[in-house]
Amino acid sequence: MPALAADLVRRQVAIIAVGGGGITALAAKDATSTIPIVFAFGSDPVKLGLVASLSRPGGNITGVSTIAVELGRKRLELLRDLLPKAVAIGFLVNPGSPNAAFDLTDMQLAASKLGQQLIIVPAHDENEIDAAFLDLVQQHAAALVVQPEPFLFSRRNQLIALAARYAIPALYFERSFPTAGGLMSYGPDFSEVNRQAGIYTGRILKGAKPADLPVIQPTKIELVINLKSARALGLEMPSTLLTLATEVIE
User: Fold this and answer.
1) Residue 219, exposed/middle/buried by CB under 10 A (0-12, 13-18, 19+)?
2) CB 217 within 8 A of CB 53
């Protein structure tokens, strides 16, 4: 990634658009302090050191961040609505993610406030994902939350298949999971995230300074439920969740 960022700087591009996570943005930041950078990802840009603050980025970088502590707690609350008696909830996390420590802290705090036990299972390659699900079964996890993270997103078919094999209700962070057969997702509308990043890119190309453009935090959050997957797991989806759902897949 650093080599790619350095190559873009050598080419003297007008702007660098960054997706795919904090590692990519950090590589771009290390490569240039003058070329504007616009990011769109789920990491916290302040904690990563990309911007001084969300309201006043202060440098050559701004963009859209989908990070929000409230999402972690809300995901656990949704699983509690689905499985009121569940206590032990798994959290699949990629330890190689720059946001792993932040996500872990936020989820542990949320679980503690809700009186839930958080079973942390790490995975940074496909073999470790297989092992993580075996660990969840051995520790009697009632359900699973998947960390919003690019690598885990890239393994969505594997995650969906394993959740079905071991009959573990899983809550994901992006609608393509339930669309592909996962149980449900709760997270930002990423098409809107990319649209907002595109608007910022256009404004900067017209002369706006990244330092003056506040980091955008999306307000539209989607709950997508796959009823076919729920039935396969033997779950009756509560009417409260169906009412909250942005989309219900039959």
Assistant:
1) exposed
2) no
d(CA 32, CA 206): 20
Top-level class of domain 2-67+189-219:
alpha beta
Residue 5 has which token pair?
């960022």
Residue 152 · residue 159 · CB < 8 Å: yes
CATH class of 69-188+222-249: alpha beta
How would you classify residue 162: left for phi > 0, otherwise alpha for psi between -120 and 50, otherwise beta? Answer: alpha
- pTM over 0.85? The answer is no
Equal CATH topology for 2-67+189-219 and 69-188+222-249: yes
Residues contacting 202, CB < 8 A, separation 6+: none
For the segment 23-67, what is each residue's pLDDT rounded down to a tens digit?
788 888 999 999 999 998 777 788 888 999 999 999 999 999 877
Structure tokens belonging to residue 161:
């298949």
Task: State the helix-helix crossing angle for 2-10 and 22-31, rounded to 10 degrees.
Answer: 40
- For the CA atoms of 206, 209, 210, 216, the dihedral, rounded to the nearest 10 degrees, stands at -70
Among candidate residues 19, 20, 29, the one with its CA nearest the CA of residue 60: 29
Identity of the amino acid at 58: G
